[in-house]
Automatic annotation (TrEMBL):
Annotated keywords: Signal
Domain AttH: 74-225
Statement: the UniProt record of this protein carries the keyword Signal: yes
TM segment ranges: none
SUPFAM superfamilies: AttH-like
Signal peptide start and end residues: 1-32
InterPro entries associated with the record: AttH-like_dom_sf (IPR023374), AttH_dom (IPR010791)
Stored Pfam families: CrtC, Lipocalin_9
Protein name, UniProt field: AttH domain-containing protein
Source organism: Streptosporangium carneum
Superkingdom field: Bacteria
Length: 360
């Protein structure tokens, strides 16, 4: 049976996940898979029943009672076309218990070769938004996202460009904290899994120019209650040359600070490990001219239990902020990393997501 190893304070996250998984497995908010559905992407386990299902949980969930309860799905891509490197991000999320800004999708493109960047955010009326329960079937003005855990099709239309891509997983699903449930901040549970390696191909059009793109994507599916006390978070997805998939969370709440990573190894085993708090190695802050928020653009990431030390930097252009309806924003930026993982030299590309203030 695939193993899970917990190291340092991260063991508490796994203990929490285990308790939540064992208590909620029989009545999980994850819908049961349709027996007629296509086979799921292989999902590894830790010996604790997984609370998430990479088939059924691509569908919308019945909302909890919390005002900040949300459903979210997005992918980030590193693709190439015409000798140029692009980063893509498509995200849709719903907050069904809110009256305003409840249904939204975003699309962003960065040309990492030239630094050109553009993003688009669409607010959608509930009557014009469809996300089916039990399956991936999302339709909204300007957005179509359909498929399953074997193949997906995504189409986006904006005033300045469009995207039409096919995504196909080439590896197993990844359950955060090994079971798919963990405390995001201050004891509030979240559910999350990823399809961390998806072959990606299709057409990108920006300002009238067509690009036939090919590359890879990382898809993340998350749902649950967003802690109101959460003041800042950083998320990164790191694909290592040896096949390790590393998903890093660094969160600051009113009562807790958590820096940890889930590592899915090619043999199906997991590590859930401590990460040194990112603020200790963050530098080169950039101030958004649109929102006035500050974000670091460099990090020194240390994961002692894995003999991992990485230098990470934003690529292309630091201005990759997506503005939100309340006048603030968050960063969805392409980054590149170099350093050492398990004692061996590594390099690669990934994304970073940051919200909140980085004044301290």
């Amino acid at each position: 049976m695939p193993a899970i190893r917990t190291k340092g304070r991260a063991a508490a996250l796994v203990t929490t996940a285990a308790a939540l998984a064992l208590c909620t497995f029989a009545s999980s908010s994850a819908q049961a898979a349709d027996p007629s559905a296509k086979p799921a992407a292989p999902s590894t386990t830790s010996g604790i029943p997984a609370v998430v299902d990479p088939v059924a949980d691509l569908g919308r969930h019945a909302p909890g009672p919390e005002l900040t309860w949300f459903d979210s799905i997005y992918f980030t891509s590193s693709v190439q076309a015409n000798g140029q490197d692009f980063g893509l991000q498509v995200h849709t999320r719903i907050l069904p218990n809110r009256d305003q800004a409840a249904y939204r999708w975003t699309f962003s493109v960065i040309n990492k070769t030239t630094g050109w960047y553009k993003d688009y955010a669409a607010m959608v009326e509930p009557k014009d938004y469809r996300w089916s329960q039990g399956k991936l079937d999302i339709k909204a003005p300007g957005l179509s996202w359909t498929g399953d855990s074997v193949r997906q099709s995504v189409q986006v239309e904006t005033p300045w460009g469009s995207l039409d891509v096919q995504l196909a997983p080439t590896g197993p699903a990844m359950n955060y904290a090994s079971t798919g449930v963990f405390h995001l901040a201050d004891g509030v549970p979240n559910y999350e899994f990823a399809l961390p390696e998806m072959r990606t191909s299709g057409t990108l059009v920006v300002e009238g120019k067509k690009h036939e793109v090919r590359g890879t994507s990382w898809l993340d599916r998350q749902w649950g209650e967003m802690p109101r006390s959460l003041t800042r978070w950083t998320w990164m997805n790191l694909s290592m040359p040896n096949g390790d998939k590393v998903a890093l969370w660094d969160t600051v709440g009113a009562k807790s600070k958590n820096s940890w990573a889930t590592v899915l190894h090619p043999d199906g085993s997991y590590d859930v490990v401590d990460v040194e708090p990112l603020a200790q190695g963050a530098s080169r802050q950039w101030t958004s001219p649109a929102t006035g928020q500050r974000y670091p653009t460099r990090w020194r990431i240390r994961i002692p239990a894995l003999r991992t030390e990485l230098d990470v930097r934003v690529t292309g252009n630091p201005d990759q902020e997506i503005e939100t309806p309340d006048g603030s924003g968050y960063l969805e930026a392409t980054v590149a990393f170099t350093g050492v993982h398990n004692g061996k030299k590594v390099r690669g590309e990934n994304y970073v997501e940051m919200t909140g203030e980085w004044n301290s």
